[in-house]
Fold each of these.
Amino acid sequence: MEKQKENKKVLLVGSAVTNLEKRELTEHLEELSLLASTLGYEVVDTFEVNLVKISAGTYIGSGKIEEIKDYASAMKIKEIIFDNELSPSQSKNLEKLIDIKISDRTSIILDIFVRHARTKEAKTQVELAKLEYLLPRLTRLWTHLERQTGGIGMRGGMGETQIEVDRRLIRTKIIRHKRELVKIEKHRKTQGKRRQEEFKVALVGYTNAGKSTLMNAMTHSHVYIKDELFATLDTTIRKWEIDNDHKVLLSDTVGFIRKLPPNLVSSFRTTLSEVIEADLIIKVADISSESCFAQLDSVEEILMDMGVVDHPSIIVFNKIDNMNKKIMKQAKQKYPDAIFLSALEKLRLQNLKDSILDHIKQNETTISLKIPLKNMQTIIELRKHTKIISEEYEDEYGIIQINCLNKIWAKLNKQLRHSFEVID
C-alpha cells in the first residue's frame, strides 16, 4: 500500500473549450481537490484555463504554461495535476517546459484505487488498470536517464534499453492479471449459479452518495463506511429479508465518479457484473450536493457504457436530513417517481422497501398445477424452489397453487413441464 503523501503542495489545472464546460469547470476542480486531498496532498491553488482549442503537444498554450511555471516556482509547488487526461506526449512536454512533475485526474483516481484495494480481486483489477495506464507513459518516466545515454544523437543507450525491458515486464504482468481476472470471473459465475433464483438488487451511485450507509440501514449489517472518496472497492452482498415472504440479495458496488478511467471500468468488469445481472438497480444520489443532478448523469453514462440501459431501476435521493431545498424542489419536478430518504437518520426507509416489494411482485407469478401423485419428485422440486400457497390431494393427483419469481417459473416449466398440467 502506498504511504500517505502528506503535505505535498500541488496546483490544480482545469480547462474549458465550450461555454458548457466553463460552467462546470469550477465544480470539476472542486472534485479534483477532494481527490487530491484523499491522497493527502495540500492543494495550494487552482488555475482555470479557457481554451480556443486543445494543443496537441502541451494541451494548454505557451502563455498559460509560463504563468503556471512562474506561480509554481514562487509557491514551491511539487506537482501539478490536470483535471483532463493528458496524452503521454503532453505530459512529457509539460514536464520539460515547467520542470515539475505533471499528473492528471486519471492517475490520481488510480492512485486512490491502489491505496484502497483490499482483496486479491480488487488489487488485481487496480493493478491491471494502473499498468495499462503506465505502459504508454514509460518514456516520460525514464527521462531522468537521458543524462546517462551519452548525449544527443546517441541511440540504444541504457535508458532506452531499460525502457524496453520494463515494457516487456509490464506487458507480461498485464497478460498475467487478465488471466487471473478470467479465473476470478469463472469462479464468480460458479457462485452466481447458486444465486440465480434470488431476486437481486444492486446499489449504484456516485462515490460518497451514501450507498453503504443505506445498505447498513436496510439490512442491519456493518459494511465499512468512511467519509472519503472510494472508501471501499469490493462489492458487498447481503441477504435481506424485506418481509416474511420476500428475500433479496442486496449488493453495494464501487462508487462512480466523473471521468472514471475507461480501463478502470473495464478492469472492474467482474465486480460490476453484480449490476449487470441485477433484477433491479437502485441509483443513489446525494440530494445535499449542488452537483446532485450532474452526478446522477455521470452514473447513467457509466451504466450505459456497461450496457445496462433497460434494467428496471429506482432513483433514491439520499441525505434529506441535510438537503438543499431548491435542489429538492427541482428533483421532485425532474424525477416525480424518485424516493427521498436519509439512510443516516433512517428516515423514510419504508418508502424504498415498499417500492422494492412492488418491483418484486411485478416479477412474480401465481400458478395452479395438477400433478399426478406418481410424479412426487415434481412436488418435491416445487416445495424446494417456490412458495406453496395451497394444496389439495385426491387418489391419483394433487392440485397445488404456487407463487414464485417469473425466472424461477421459466426454469421449472422447462425442466418439469411433462410432469404437470397448468390449470386456471
Amino acid sequence: MKKRTLKELQLLREAGNPTAAKLPLVLVLDNVRSALNTGSAFRTADAFAIEKIVLCGITATPPHREILKTAIGATETVAWEYAADTVSAIRALQTAGYRVWAVEQAEGSQLLQDVVVPSAAPMALVFGNEVSGVSDEAMAVVDGCVEVPQFGTKHSLNIAVCLGVVVWEVVRQLRFGS
C-alpha cells in the first residue's frame, strides 16, 4: 500500500466529493475547560463535514492559541458560534428543529451501539466539562442521552476521544445507513 500525498487528497476534494456536503449535525460544547479539546472538536468537525459547533460558557473561542494548535486550520472551515448559556443554546436548536442528545453516563441513556440515528431530523450532540460532564441544567432539557460503553476501571474518556467515537457513529449512520 502507498499513502496518499496531500496533493492527491486535495485533488479528491476538488473533484467534488459527493459526501463532502455538510451534515445537519451540530456539536455543543458545554463549559469545556481545555482549549486543546476544543481545537480537537473543530478538527473532528472538519473531518466529518459537520454543520457547526456551539461553544458555551467557559469554553474558549477562536482565535485562541491552544485551539489553533490542535484545530490546524479547522476554525476556518467549520462554522461556530458562542452562547453564554448552554440551556439557551439547546433550546434555540430545539426551536430550529434539532433533536438534541447529551453524551453522558446517565440513567436512561442509550448505549452507542444501540442508537439508531434518525435521518430525517437535524441533530445536535452535547459534550460536557472534563470533570463534571454535561451540566444538570442541560441534562434537564435534552431530548435524549447516548453513552459510550466502557469496560476499563476509569469509566471516563477524554472529551476529544469521546467526541470522535460518537461523531463517527452518527456520521456513519447518516452517510452510509445503519
Amino acid sequence: MTEEEIRDRPGRAAAGALPEHPVRGALLDLLADAGTITSTEAARRLGYSSGLCSFHLRQLARYGRIEEAPRAGGRERPWRIRQAPPPAGSPPAEPFGELARGLEDDSYHRWLARRDQTPAEWRRDEAFSAVAYLTRVGVRRQVVRDRRVEQLAVDREQQPATRPDAARPVALIARLFPLLPGAADAES
C-alpha cells in the first residue's frame, strides 16, 4: 500500500471522531515510548516519509490526542501526548495524570519482560520505594530537586548533541503523595 493510499483510506468512526489508522496508531505508540517526537524522528524510526508523519501528527493534534511540546529552537516541531481534560465540574487536573501513570506502568512491564535482551550492564532494575516523613515544605523542596533532574532530561531529549555517547533513554519517575489510612486503620 502506498503512502497516498494509507493517507486517503477512509476510516470507520463516529461523526467527529478521528478514524483509526495504522500510521496514527504507530505514532501514538512511539510517543508513548519516547515522550516527544518530531515528524523527522518519527519517519526515521517508523520507516514512513516525514511528510506522512507530519500529516498524521497534525491530525492527532487537530482531534486533541496530542499537542506541541516546547521547542528548543530551530524549525523542528516536537509533539507529545495530550492529557485528557477533566470532566466538567471536577477539580483542576493534576499535571501527572492517569495517562502518564498508565504509560509508565506499561513501559515498566515491557522492561521487565525484555530486560534479558538488553546488554548486561543495563539489566539491573534501579527501582526503589521508600516512606519518608516530610512536611509540606519538605515535599516542595524534594519536588524542586526532582524538577532539576527532569529539566536535564528534557534538555537532553530536545538537544541530542548534549547527550553523553553511551546514554540511553531511561524513565525517571517520582510520585510524592501523603499516605492515607486504609479501611483497617480507620476502624482501630
